[in-house]
Specification:
- The chain has 709 residues and is an alpha+beta fold.
- The protein is 39% helix and 16% strand.
- It folds into three domains: 203 residues, no CATH class; 96 residues, Pdz3 Domain (Roll), CATH 2.30.42.10; 201 residues, Alpha-Beta Complex (2-enoyl-CoA Hydratase, Chain A, domain 1), CATH 3.90.226.10.
- Strands 1, 5, 6, 7, 8, 9 and 10 form a seven-stranded antiparallel beta sheet that branches. A six-stranded mixed beta sheet has the order 12-13-14-17-18-21, sandwiched between helices.
């Protein structure tokens, strides 16, 4: 099965010989992703006196060989790589600089130019020595946290807690770490008390949390340590090359088959918080529209009214055990918005557990009517959540197999049968990619046969992938709505529409994933049955637009930008360490369908004038500004009254923004923020308006072009 950003070979011989099965998910980090219903457990916990096995030494040498031979960078594993491995490995263990001392970091310098040998020669002792030191520090911190809990903090003191220490200096002394952890424990307690917990209740919750974390640290195996180290190595080459242990290889296979039940989200543990990294198309999380990437799960409850169980500090797989359950049952999640300071107001979301199917993730349509003068324009909207294909049905010879291209064609035909449309919006927001063949097929619905994307392999060979000639399904005004989570196959499609001058790109700069991965089951290189080597995904190529420019790192730039709550600095390829750089190759031979450039100036002016007085759009901008301001905070007050006042201020500001919106629309004001429900999608509404503007301008523009005006 070909997945996001993966290559589909053009000859049947190549199809039989090599198939990639790697999928892109907007926020997957190395091998630490967990899909609800499947588990990718992060290896940032510790074990006592763990040591590498002979099998892990053999796998390490094999992995190093595959990377040197097959990775797109074609780079040797040498001292400069070793230096980067050390930095990435330490970061994977203590990215918030809350465990190691400066003396530990200085001691690790002895390994800076030895970790390349750890990979290529299987000399893994340095990696395990670093990990065991982390385990020692982790024990010390958990013991100290439990000790601090014995005394109720003074919440009237004016002091603050620096919760974002990514760039802070390492603590020089144990006393300095103690002070940091005293404040951390105090903040944990304060965050609970902001939810109307008493100190005794907060004490009991935190005691269980820290004891659980201490126990978890003793449960890590050498395989966990090895997997984490190998992914620190892989991340030096690029963010999308990963090593999966034998256990996680099977979970990866299940995830690729889409045969799981859950809520449809991928998770990762970030600083003790189970964090949503991606919301998957077709799942209940996406359909509820209540969960977003970077949201934190603080507690989990069973059924519609089950007691919420605090899960901060839990192992990822233990949290999943709580979230998983029989299809049709319900799970409750206590959520804190992503990028919010600790202690920010939470909300409880109730979601049904369900199996994600092709039907659930299929493209859907709606009709929007936009008034222009005395005319009512019919603007079609097709939501494309992923580039999917029923691969099993296709290979079985079923002529009616489901796919993105087939479904979008059918929806366009339905629009035409229902009275036609004046313009069309394709909504690719949150679309992390999928089958490359579907991205190519979708291009062919709007552009006649021709090149769509170029693929350059590590050896320098370039292959131009073209669309088929089944015929254009729609030739009218077209816009494509994207955001930062539009990635891989979405970017290939959007870039082709932009390069052919066929559609106007609206929204936010896309993710910027222009790389191609291949799957390597490592057991095929071993002797004997079930050697337990795991598997690799390795970046083997790069995608390029027909113009020769890459989408890598830079993404697709919108023709008309819309505001977004997604941070470009924190999300996207350009934010990832080790990301391959942008570059370009020779342009393919292609014939543009036209150019939208001449109308962009007027479309932009009309857009600016309209949104200046649009209540829904102004409300959305206010929400985004509030999130941006919160995102910039790196510390929080540890004074209870100050935190209560801050929370009340933020709540009242949001209520005020909503009531200003309602007043402008002639609606009755609300009394509390809890009453805010089902807010309109201001960005989609504005995309429809821009499309209507384009409908009005296009005949004039075409007439001028035809007459040479």
């Amino acid at each position: 099965m070909y997945q996001a950003g993966d290559r589909e070979e053009t000859s049947s011989r190549k199809r039989r010989g090599r198939r990639s099965a790697t999928a892109f998910a907007a926020a997957m980090v190395a091998a630490c992703m967990l899909l609800l219903g499947t588990a990718y457990t992060p290896s940032a916990a510790t074990g006592a006196g763990l040591a590498p096995t002979d099998r892990e030494a053999r796998v390490s040498r094999l992995v190093g060989s595959v990377f040197e031979r097959s990775h797109y960078r074609q780079a040797p594993i040498n001292d400069p790589v070793s230096s980067l491995i050390l930095d990435r490995y330490v970061e994977s263990l203590d990215g918030n600089r809350s465990y190691f001392l400066a003396s530990d970091i200085a001691e690790f310098e002895r390994y800076r130019y030895r970790l390349d040998d750890a990979i290529t020669q299987g000399r893994l002792d340095p990696a395990f020595a670093i990990f065991n030191r982390f385990q020692q520090r982790n024990r010390e911190r958990m013991n100290y946290a439990l000790e601090v809990l014995e005394t109720e903090p003074d919440f009237t003191i004016d002091e603050s807690f620096e919760f974002d220490r990514e760039h802070a200096p390492w603590a020089a002394t144990t006393a300095e770490l103690d002070d940091l952890w005293r404040k951390r424990v105090k903040n944990d307690a304060l965050s609970l008390m902001l939810t109307d917990k008493t100190w005794p209740e907060a004490h009991d919750i935190l005691q269980k949390r820290y004891e659980r974390a201490a126990k978890r640290s003793e449960q890590v195996t050498s395989d966990d340590v090895f997997e984490n180290f190998m992914n620190s190595f892989a991340s030096v080459f690029d963010p999308h090359s990963n090593y999966f242990s034998p256990r996680n290889s099977e979970e990866y296979r299940i995830q690729m088959s889409l045969s799981y039940e859950g809520i449809g989200a991928s998770l990762q543990v970030v600083d003790d918080y189970v964090t949503i990294m991606d919301v998957l198309p077709g799942g209940s999380a996406q359909q509820s529209n209540e969960l977003k990437a970077t949201d934190r799960i603080l507690a989990v409850g069973q059924g519609k009214d089950g007691e919420l169980v605090d899960v901060v500090g839990w192992r990822l797989d233990d949290v999943v055990d709580l979230i998983r359950g029989p299809g049709g049952s319900f799970v409750r999640l206590q959520i804190q918005s992503g990028n919010a300071a600790p202690g920010t107001a939470e909300r409880v979301v109730t979601l049904p557990r369900k199996k994600i199917t092709l039907e659930a993730q299929a493209a859907k349509k709606e009709l929007r009517k936009v008034t222009r003068g005395d005319k009512e324009l019919r603007i079609g909207v097709i939501d494309v959540p992923s580039f999917y294909q029923d691969f099993d049905a296709r290979t079985a010879g079923d002529d009616d197999y489901r796919s993105t291209t087939r479904d979008v064609r059918r929806l366009i035909e339905e629009f035409q049968a229902e009275g036609g449309i004046d313009g069309l919006v394709l909504d690719l927001r949150q679309n992390g990619g999928g089958h490359l063949s579907e991205a190519i097929g979708l291009v062919n619905l709007f552009v006649p046969k021709g090149p769509v994307v170029q693929l350059r392999e590590s050896g320098g060979k370039v292959e131009v992938l073209e669309s088929d000639s089944q015929g254009v399904a729609y030739s009218g005004p077209l816009t494509i709505l994207v955001d930062r989570f539009s990635a891989s196959a979405s970017e290939i499609f959007a870039a082709a529409m932009q390069d052919y001058g066929r559609g106007i790109i609206i929204g936010q700069e896309t993710y910027g994933k222009g790389s191609v991965q291949n799957l390597y089951p490592l057991d095929r290189f071993a002797l004997g049955q079930d050697p337990g080597y795991g598997q690799l995904t390795v970046t083997i190529g790069m995608y390029y637009r027909v113009t020769g420019e890459s989408t890598q790192n830079r993404g697709v730039q919108p023709d008309i930008a819309l505001p977004s709550a997604i941070s470009i600095e924190e999300v996207g390829e350009s934010s990832r360490e080790g990301a391959l750089p942008w570059n370009r190759i020779r342009s393919a031979t292609f014939k543009p369908e036209g150019s939208v450039t001449p109308v962009l100036g007027e479309l932009q002016r009309d857009h600016d004038a309209r949104v200046a007085n649009d209540p829904d759009f102004r409300f959305a901008e206010g929400e985004i500004a509030a999130i941006d301001a919160m995102r910039k905070e790196k510390s929080v007050s540890l004074n209870l009254k100050e935190r209560q006042a801050e929370r009340e201020r933020l709540t009242q500001e949001r209520l005020s923004r909503e009531n200003e919106r309602r007043k402008a629309l002639g609606e009755a004001p609300l009394k509390t923020v809890d009453e805010i429900k089902d807010l309109p999608d201001a960005m989609l509404a504005e995309a429809a308006q821009i499309t209507a503007d384009y409908v009005e301008l296009e005949p004039t523009y075409l007439a001028k072009t035809a007459t040479g005006g």
